[in-house]
Amino acid sequence: MVNVTINGKAIQVPEGTSILNAAKMIDVKIPTLCHNPDLPAWASCGICIVRIEGTSKMIRACCTAVTEGLKVITHDPEIVQARRTVLELILSNHPNDCLQCVRNGQCELQSLAAEFALRTVRFTKILKQQPIDDSNDAIVLDRDKCINCGRCVEACQLMQNVWALEYTGRGDKTVIGPVAGVTLADSPCVRCGQCAVHCPTGAIASSHSNRKLWDRLGNPEITTVVQMAPAVRVAIGEEFGLEPGTISTKKIYTALRRIGFDYVFDTNFAADLTIMEEGTELVNRITKGGTMPMFTSCCPGWVDYAEKNYHDLLPNLSTAKSPQQMMGAVIKNYWAPRMGLDPAKVFSVSIMPCTAKKYESRRDESMNSSGYSDVDTSLTTREFAHLIRQAGIDFDHLEESEADTPLGPYSGAGTIFGATGGVMEAAVRTAYALVTGKELGNIEYKPVRGFDSVKEAEVDLNGKKLRLAVVHQLGNVDPVVQRIREAIAKGEPAPYDFIEVMACRGGCIGGGGQPYGVNDEIRLKRAAGLYKDDEDSEIRVSHKNPMITEIYKNYYGEPNSEKAHHQLHTHYTERPLYK
């Protein structure tokens, strides 16, 4: 611990703490733009300058560690004026179209300009005059709104190891964009959306589908059906002032009906279906000599990354579709005919925490198992919040309601899909029962929970040791893959049998389509909400969901049947890193 004085108040903080974080401990807010708790501080913007007491020296609080006896002043007239000047310089290179911007009301630059009461800018307005890149079907890049803070580049390169974004040019000619000057669609981008969720302005955002949706909702000849992913229920409340992790499931059902959807289902049902298909596939690979180890396949960002980077391991990916796509297939192949509806006139919508889901629904022909697009459009949690506001709904005071059957009821295993380790835990609960004929004693398999970069565990299946690994955040995947490759090259058994991979930190709770301002504290609260939903569930294993039992009895026959393979499974394609 070191002794520091901030604005005349003496405190003790751990050695190595930044001035920025030390100030937070005594509720002093130092403004920032380039800083984000997920990323290493690199002092790009200069907004966080502070003064060492008794000197004229100004230093940047985000990347300067405290030292014994340091005395810091965080606010005085000169510091405030310097920050105002920095903001003016940034605004002189920024468009004035806040009313049309996707980040209006949620923009960090806009908030700082209001905080400093900036009404005029003394400098000549000079814009980059860069074209908007909307070539990617999930992410839109508007470089005129870029402030060169670098957060998107750091997220893409350091967190995700994707390297789709980089800096080009020097000085005031610096531009952030796709590598080698290509479009986003031609870059290594996997549409995870971490660039968008870390951007402080509207320079990078997810594409919007709300206008298209309103057109369908207003068409009496169209039947609109919606599904909602696990992680949405513990994050949407943040958009309306609720605590992160608040479980809003039944309010969401009501909101979707008020918006105008004809039928409201829950993706958690399809998560249970995924476990039946993927768990059965895993058991078959183990017992019948299939390709091992097996990777999960429900994260489209991970699948895209594997198709571009790990061609040799594509046979190791489970062929099971994601819950979103399984639900889309079930809606149009199973549910619609039983309701006497023409699948061509069913508009299937998903509410997802993920930007890559927009791409997944059009990834290849297997996503059209019904003869039509199984999922017609996918909205992020943020887009859903816009829908709720546009519909004039007071979300916090909504009454609760239930999802429609038969595609609404779910188990606790289905809901934990949204947190890192959740797919693995749900799979272990069911795989154990499939192999041993008995239920797992302690249903909460906690070794795969938590935010460690790579979690390892082992479960005994009738004498067979199943070695597990759970990875979240794409930047953590490569060391695991290299260990597997090295073992295969030596003719040795792989170090794991079953590996869960989620592209985003924390899993879907930290997805690129979730509410802005996320950090690990918020991610942990969202995860806790999902585990609470699991604890409160009457049924906590996928194979005991009665609606799942019914759909196999009446339609699919059994997991991994020929019909199930046609509708609920997919294949993978080697894709070039650059088009």
Plain-language structure description:
With 579 residues, the protein is of the alpha/beta class. It is built from 18 helices and 17 strands. The protein has helices spanning 19-25, 77-91, 108-115, 151-159, 194-198, 210-217, 249-259, 267-288, 300-309, 323-338, 356-360, 381-390, 412-415, 422-436, 477-489, 520-535, 546-556, 562-568; strands at 2-6, 9-13, 49-52, 58-60, 71-73, 139-141, 165-168, 175-178, 204-206, 223-228, 263-264, 294-295, 346-352, 377-380, 454-461, 464-472, 498-502. A five-stranded mixed sheet has the order 2-1-5-3-4, with helices on both faces. A four-stranded parallel sheet has the order 11-10-13-14, sandwiched between helices. Strands 12-17-16-15 form a four-stranded mixed sheet, covered by helices on one side. Helix 8 (267-288) packs across helix 10 and helix 8 (267-288) crosses helix 14 (422-436).
Low-confidence stretches: none
The whole-angstrom Rg is 25 Å
Assembly type? single chain
Give a quick account of the main beta sheet: strands, pairing sense, barrel closure.
5 strands, mixed
CATH topology of the largest domain: Rossmann fold
Q: Based on helices, strands and strand pairing, what is the structural class?
A: alpha/beta
Order of the strands making up the biggest sheet: 2-1-5-3-4
How many structural domains are formed by the residues? 3
Per DSSP, what share of the residues sits in E-state strands of 2 or more residues? Answer: 5-15%
The overall average pLDDT, rounded, is 95
CATH architecture of the largest domain: 3-Layer(aba) Sandwich
Dominant shape: globular
